[in-house]
Amino acid sequence: MAVAVEVEHGKEKVAKEIIEAIDEEKKSVTFKVIEGDLMELYKTFIITVHVDTKGEDNLVSWTFEFEKLNESVEDPNSLMEFCLNVTKDIETHHIQLQRT
């Protein structure tokens, strides 16, 4: 799967990823980035999305595991906005499903 992510000063970046694991019991999905702009900065980049449900509330956690190509590469903090937007899109989708 290839996704476009905005990570630097409004500049769109592309990452191609594969699903490494789906754990329905733990409500998590792990992706491994295999191609794209992120691989120009990192040797490895793994993203895990986890949902923790408490009653009707859901808490979504995003975890990045990465190895920088060198020490001058910054941490991927700019991906937080992308994660927030994806989480909001999923929430909107689920709310619409509940109303139908």
Features:
100 residues, 1 helix, 54% strand, globular
Notes on the protein architecture:
The structure is a single chain. The chain has 1 helix and 5 strands. With 100 residues, it is of the alpha+beta class. A 5-stranded antiparallel beta sheet has the order 1-2-3-4-5, with helices on one face. A hairpin with a 5-residue loop joins strand 3 (28-36) and strand 4 (42-54). It is globular. The chain starts with a strand and ends with a helix.
Question: Any chance you could write out the topology, listing elements then pairs?
Answer:
Layout: E1 2-8, E2 11-23, E3 28-36, E4 42-54, E5 57-68, H1 80-99
Antiparallel strand pairs: 1-2, 2-3, 3-4, 4-5
Number of strands: 5
**SS strand fraction:** over 45%
Main β-sheet: number of strands, strand sense, barrel status? Answer: 5 strands, antiparallel
Question: What is the share of helical residues?
Answer: 10-25%
- The best one-word shape is globular
Please sum up the structure shown:
This protein has one helix and five strands. It is of the alpha+beta class.
